[in-house]
Amino acid sequence: MVTLEELKAVFKPKLKPIIWKEDNLDLLDQSALPFQTIYITVKTPEEVAKAIKLMQVRGAPAIGITAGYGMVLALISAKPNTLNEAIEELVKAKQIMDQARPTAVNLSWATSRMLNFAKKKIEEGEAKSVRELIQLMKEEANRIYEEELEAELKIGMYGLEKINDGDTILTQCNAGGLATGTGLGTALAPVKLAHYLGMKVSVIAPETRPWLQGSRLTVYELMAEGIPVTLITDTAIGLVMYKNMVNSVMVGADRILKDGHVFNKIGTFKEAVISHELGIPFYALAPSSSFDLKSKVDEIKIEERDPNEVRTIRGIPIVPENVKVYNPVFDITPPKYITALITEKGVIYPPFEKNIPKMIGL
Predict the structure, then answer these.
(1) Strand partners of residue 203
(2) 3-state secondary structure of 92
(3) Which one is catalytic: 165, 254, 306, 331?
(4) Does 259 participate in catalysis according to the annotation?
(5) What three-state secondary structure class fits 257?
(6) Which of 7, 23, 162, 331 could form a disulfide with 269 if both were Cys (CB 3.0 to 4.6 A apart)?
């Protein structure tokens, strides 16, 4: 098995989706890819929430990192005079950002972590002024980023065990470095690391309607890394697997429940069912911050987005005006269709209800 230190040595990201600049945050505008590489600068929680809602930054881990820095920006932009006012601003910022994408658990996880961190540092007397609190919170936001990268390297390390030289992996949406903010990714981490280590690997990427994250982002990201990738329509998934063109399926996850239900980009469930029917291994890869051990499956709100995302492509109408549209962003994959969950703490096999709490330790 390849060691973590060996993987750190070979990992050289070509993309930097999130850049912190001490008093503002530069985000690679993923809504403009692949035709334009544009960075937007955000300076307030409202601007962070807008960037998340407009999917200029997207992917659960990247949203979490961005929200962590967003809590720092709340204090920098509001300029509170007292520590009590600082906590009030942080509470307000958390409410603003949490509403941007409620299904992605990393968002509220990051804002809660930053708020609790601030309260703790004030209570312990480590932050005696707003200035000191801001500095401490910058360090904590940086830790969220570094922990995410470390987790992805470990996810990649465990995922490598499931890849053989010459394999072709089917994925869904974009769960690479663009989605996580680090340049590595979750579902694409084993693929990228295998490539860096000299293995011959390739990817089949479905387009992922209606935002086309597969064609716009996954293809862009893999081509930038020099990894062979083939784009297919979402409707070609079944045939591709039936024709034995896929060795395994690796997808990310926006939320994983205690019993193993996986909430991920719409289309994931279909891949899992077909994989199960054809005997193809299906893996969901995610850091422990994406696990929700408290909620039940029917308690999770499935986010629905603007119907015009389906009625149009880049603003151009493709259907009769005002046709009724159902546009869910996520779907739910039951545990019986999942071969294993791959996390930074190891590979989790069924029975998930027993093994997830044991492995994740939350």
Answers:
(1) 169, 229
(2) helix
(3) 254
(4) no
(5) strand
(6) 331
